[in-house]
Specification:
alpha+beta; 544 residues; two-stranded antiparallel sheet
């Protein structure tokens, strides 16, 4: 019989994830962790079943049927089995609703669910993030009628009443540059606002509702003249109302996610608040959706590493299992250390978000959340791409074979750096946060997390000092400041992650587990400083 290589097996992601288990055990009260455990275990079961199903059955994608057999326009989208499962899994295990419990721990409990569910959901977590953001924005608007109408549906724990919300911002003139929005809101004779225009990138167009930016008719140009509207996509009979789907996007990854180009022709709409400053009304969503992005990026890392580590026990080369070869072990260990750092930063942000939302944060936590949210999003996105790419190498040629399900991890990871603000956009956002507070919120956090006697403290404080020095050097030169933003962002993200690893190491050493301390040492050994000194020759370098 010819040799057959064993495929990698996915270990239960809740029962065997040391990093998740330790974090939850240390940050959640015992009774709340016990209450959440059945949902977390069930989502782990679903993840294992989904991976095994992926090995047995061909991957499917959503299919758009624009016309029925008799010529009627129907714009019907057939979804994948995982997406058909989505409303049931989400509501049964409170993947979305748990984040809105009246507890400072609610966001950690929610994002633990998201972390376990995301990869198996086939990016159903994308519209869940937007629905969560929509619920947050509507609540922040104070619009009582919309809160009564939408929130019970967005946060439902019953699949039969659950609604998804899209986020319709991007148009052909610009994505992050929403000030160029061309969609117009017109008021009809009955006083109903209606939207007319084209939305170029509408993820999860199958949602029952959406928040959309539009320019009220007669308003001036620019970002401040935009208004934010709530829309429902179908009428009482379930027919599209004022929405035409032009096509589904062909994307590098996230193939199961139905992303559409749509035209709006008289779609009924309700303003969230004033008929201006719509981008300001979107702002409450950003902490939410960017945190979802970071959690999902970390989930992809965890999946890639789990499969690579399992495969190393099943694959032999040159007479020795990969798990016994020093260079392969070094590669896996480096990946694990980066992952643990990214996980720690992300779930710290989740905890900050929950405390700030519930009014139980320390005075400096709000400023820290404002600074860390873009940092966590941009850095975890880049780390996810790097780790999933490295993981594919761990499988050799098999990592490049579509049927294994492995290449999809890398293709899908690329989206994390693009959704909810690119690395450059978020680096500039970080500069705005630093302009208000400097690095002081980070220094306060480090003082809380890292004991004065800890040997790691010197490197962490040195990275903050170097960042502060660079900010002082370039602060008077806006061009030099912006050119340095990415280096500053990566340095601060790594520095805060290192401080959190020190705390995790302390937790685990007290419990007799030396593993997190090893992750901390490995991460620090790779350095924190990613600062790029302003060279001033970018134009010259690109002139040719």
């Amino acid at each position: 019989m010819a040799f057959l290589q064993e495929s990698p097996r996915l270990a239960h992601p809740f029962h065997t994830d040391r990093v998740l288990g330790a974090w939850l055990s240390n940050v959640l009260p015992r009774e709340r962790l016990a209450a959440a455990t059945p949902d977390l275990a069930a989502l782990g079961d679903y993840a294992v079943d989904a991976w095994e199903r992926r090995q047995r059955t061909p991957r499917t994608e959503p299919i758009l049927t624009q016309w029925d057999a008799w010529g009627a326009r129907v714009d019907r989208i057939a979804l994948t089995p995982a997406w058909d499962d989505g409303p049931h899994v989400t509501t049964r295990h409170a993947v979305l609703a748990a984040g809105h419990d009246a507890s400072p721990h609610a966001r950690v409990e929610q994002f633990a669910r998201v972390y376990l569910y995301h990869v198996a959901s086939e990016f159903y977590c994308c519209p869940l993030a937007m629905t969560d953001g929509a619920a947050t924005a509507i609540r922040a608007s104070g619009n009582a009628a919309l809160m009564e109408r939408a929130l019970p549906r967005f946060l439902s724990r019953d699949a039969s009443t659950f609604w998804l919300s899209g986020q319709w911002m991007t148009e052909t003139p610009g994505g992050s540059d929403v000030g160029r929005t061309e969609t117009v809101a017109r008021r009809d004779d009955d006083g109903q606002w209606r939207l007319h225009g084209r939305k170029w990138f509408s993820s999860a167009v199958v949602g029952e509702a959406a928040l959309a930016l539009a320019r009220p008719e007669g308003a001036g140009p620019g970002t401040s003249a935009l208004a934010l509207f709530y829309v429902e996509t179908r009428d009482a009979q379930g027919r599209w109302q004022g929405v035409t789907i032009d096509r589904l996007k062909k994307k590098l990854g996230t193939h199961e996610l139905p992303t559409a180009e749509i035209h709006l022709d008289g779609l009924p709409a309700t303003p969230l608040g004033e008929l201006a400053h719509g981008v300001r009304q979107v702002a409450p969503m950003l902490n939410i959706t960017r945190t979802w992005n970071a959690v999902c990026a970390v989930a992809s890392m965890a999946r890639a590493i789990a499969l690579a580590r399992d495969y190393a026990t099943r694959r032999s080369a040159f007479g020795t299992r990969l798990a016994e070869q020093p260079l392969h072990l070094r590669t896996l260990a480096d990946m694990q250390a980066e992952f643990e750092a990214a996980f720690s930063l992300t779930f710290h942000v989740a905890g900050l978000l929950g405390r700030v939302e519930q009014g139980e944060a320390a005075p400096h936590d709000t400023a820290l959340l404002r600074l860390l949210t873009p940092l966590a999003k941009l850095w975890t996105a880049k780390v996810s791409i790097r780790i999933t790419s490295e993981a594919l190498e761990c499988f050799g040629g098999a990592g490049y074979i579509e049927d294994t399900g492995l290449p999809q991890l890398l293709r899908d990871a690329q989206v994390y750096a693009i959704w909810e603000g690119t690395t450059n956009v978020l680096s500039l956002d970080m500069l705005r946060a630093l302009g208000a507070t400097g690095v002081e919120p980070l220094r306060q956090a480090v003082d809380t997390l890292v004991p004065a006697s800890a040997p790691e403290r010197r490197a962490i404080v040195a990275a903050l000092d170097a960042t502060e020095a660079l900010l002082g050097e370039v602060s008077a030169d806006r061009a030099a400041l912006e050119a340095s933003a990415r280096g500053i962002a990566f340095t601060l993200a790594r520095t805060m992650a290192a401080a959190l690893l020190v705390r995790s190491a302390g937790w685990s050493l007290s419990a007799g587990d030396p593993t997190p301390a090893a992750a901390c040492r490995r991460f620090l050994a790779r350095g924190l400083d990613r600062l790029a000194l302003p060279a001033g020759d970018d134009d010259a370098l690109l002139a040719g």
